[in-house]
Amino acid sequence: MTSRVFAKLFGLFVLLLILQTVVVEIVFNRMAGERFRLPGHETLWAGLVALAMALPLAAWVASRISARLQQVVTFARRIADGDLSARLGHTGHDEFSSMEAALDQTAERLGESFAEIESRRQELAGLLDSMQEAVVTITPEGLVRWSNAVMERIAGAQIQVGRPLVNSLRDPEVLACVKAALELREERSGRASTLAPGRIFEIHAVPMSSGGALAVLHDITRIDAAEKSRREFVANVSHELRTPLTSIQGYVETLIEEPHVRRETNREFLGIILKNATRMSRLTEDLIALASVESPDYKLSLQPTRASALVSDAVKSLGGMVVDSGVVLESSGAPDVLVLAESDAMSQVFGNLVENALRYGKAGKRILVGARLLESEVEFSVQDFGPGIAAEHLTRIFERFYRVDKARSRESGGTGLGLAIVKHIVLAHGGRIWAESELGHGATFHFTLPLSTQAPEARQTLDSGA
Prior knowledge:
By secondary structure, the protein is of the alpha+beta class. The protein has 13 helices and twelve strands. The protein has four domains: 2-83; 131-219, Beta-Lactamase, CATH 3.30.450; 223-294, Signal transduction histidine kinase, dimerisation/phosphotransfer (DHp) domain (Helix Hairpins); 303-463, 2-Layer Sandwich (Heat Shock Protein 90). Helix 6 runs antiparallel to helix 7. It starts with a helix and ends with a helix.
């Protein structure tokens, strides 16, 4: 292109010089007349000599103009290729310099605009990546245009820009919602359960003005589990209340319809009514306690407390619970170190665990309460020597209303909430809880409490091998 521009400019200069020479020769001879007419064609020769002298100047001027135009062309190509840092570096005060200055200013403004756009794009991408929802945009042809980090974690390496969505996400509900947004241009919602094992997503797909579609997937696994737990809880409470209420209602109706019931029968019926009323009262109390410990507002007043004191107090205060059962409740020892605990809450924990051991391990005739020092916590335990618990029940016995032996539990007056209450109290202390058992060899319930930072003697005790 530069050579063509140079040739055109040079030819234009030459043509102008020739015309100038011819015009000068004709005009000069006519105006000067015969008196000043030069002999022969000296004027023409003089013009040719001037033309010959002007040609290098014309060539130099043409090359300068061509070079500057080539700079402008190179600048334009760099801008078109996305190099917004390109500049012409204009000098001088001619028209070319003004044009170059205007082009440099335009490039600078473009660079600022694109930098701002890129900054906003990165902010938007960061915002979408920080969302808990998975987001993916799809072109009108059904190809993945963009996806955030959450979607990439869910789909893995399968989801890639430019790849068909049907090859990336194979959940039929997701594909159906996206298809409706692309083809029918309408919003569509659904629920996906096959994108990730054990997880449920709520889908919302909407059409975009560009012709594509946007799909947002919200993980509702916990919400769904909470709703399922709520339904089960309501069903369990209803069942637990209906049984004693039905019994109470039946015996009361009998007493009303039979005014001349014998004294012995009357006492028997009233005893059954009292037993069921007591069961309902215990259930109500446990429900209130469970609601309290599960509440986000549940707060504990943690104080440095001797682990040995917690164990000895539990054995003393709960001795009356086992006095008529033929079971021996005793301590297996505890370290004399400080743990962070609330005494009243710990009394409830030990009370529920001992009551549970008494209810299911009474045949062992012995219950041991003890503790031992670990690295940064103290592990407490309540052990019975009864029939034990099957391995398949150990991971679920801390669930609300879960019972290993439902018939036996109801017969003994258990509500199925005691261990759930214990779990929440221990977790609120920052501890852990679990159970170990072997059929025929009893069961042991363990829980931990963190050491108090005000207890330097705990480290000394542990280091000495106590």
